[in-house]
Amino acid sequence: MCDTCGCNITPANRQLVYRPANSGNAVTAVSVLTHLLARNNDAAGHNRMHLDKHGVLAVNLMSSPGAGKTSLLEATIDALKDEFRIAVIEGDLETENDARRIRARGVPAIQITTGSACHLDAHMVHEALHELSLDDVDILFIENVGNLVCPASFDLGQHRHVVLLAVTEGDDKPAKYPVMFRVAEAVLITKTDLLPHLDDFSIDDASRHVRELANAAPIMPLSARKHIGLDTWLDWLRSEAAVRRSRPAAGSVPGHASAPIAAE
Prior knowledge:
The chain is an alpha/beta fold. The chain has nine helices and seven strands; from the N terminus they run ααβαβαβαββααβαβα. A seven-stranded parallel β-sheet has the order 3-2-4-1-5-6-7, with helices on both faces. α8 (203-211) links the parallel β6 (186-190) and β7 (219-221). The longest helix has 25 residues, at 29-53. The two termini are 32 Å apart.
C-alpha cells in the first residue's frame, strides 16, 4: 500500500527521497520504497541500541482509530506510576489531544504530527527520543497512528509490538489484516465491558483467527475504562521490563536486524 499511495514519505524521511533535478539517477517507486525501508531499518536499529543503552523497554501500540490506545495508556500509567518511570510518544495526523491527556497524568509525552503519513517511522521516533531524558525512563510507549495496515511494516526500534482489537470492530479483523496481527507480540481485546451489548463479537473467534496466523502471542481481553482484566496486561509489562533490565545494551532483539549506531 505505502509504495502506491505515497504514505511511506513522511516529514522525517522526505530528504531521503527528493534529489536535485540534475542528479542523473533514475528513480522508480520500487527503488524509492526499497531505499526508504532500508534507511528506516538503519534508524530503527539506532533507536533500539539507544534504548538498550539506557535500559528502556519500548512498546509500540498499534490499532485502528478508536480502539482505546490512549485510554489503555491512562489506565496503565495510573496503575504503574509508582513502579516505573513512564514516557509516551504520541503519533497522530493532527492535534496534540492525546499527548495532553497523557501529560495530565504527570507523564512526559512527545507529540508527533505526521501530516498525511498514516504511520510513524523510525526517523520520527529518533527525533522524539532526543526530546526525552531516557535516563529517567523505564518504559516508553509509542502510540502509533490509528491504522491496521501501514504501521506493521515500519520498525521503529521498539522491543515489542502490541496490537489492540476493540470488540466494536468485529472478531474477523485478524483474518482481514493478517500482517498487523502476525507481527503482534501481544494482542489486547479491548472494551470488553461492551460485550453484553454486542451479539456479533466472539473472543474465541478472534483468538482463533490470531492462532490461524501461526501467532502464539498472549491474547488479553480487558476494559481499560472499567479496569477489567488489566492485571494480566500489567503483569506482562512487568515481565517484559524485567527482561529488558537483564539484557544491558544488547543492540538487537529476536526478529529485528541490528544496525551500527550512527552519530547522535
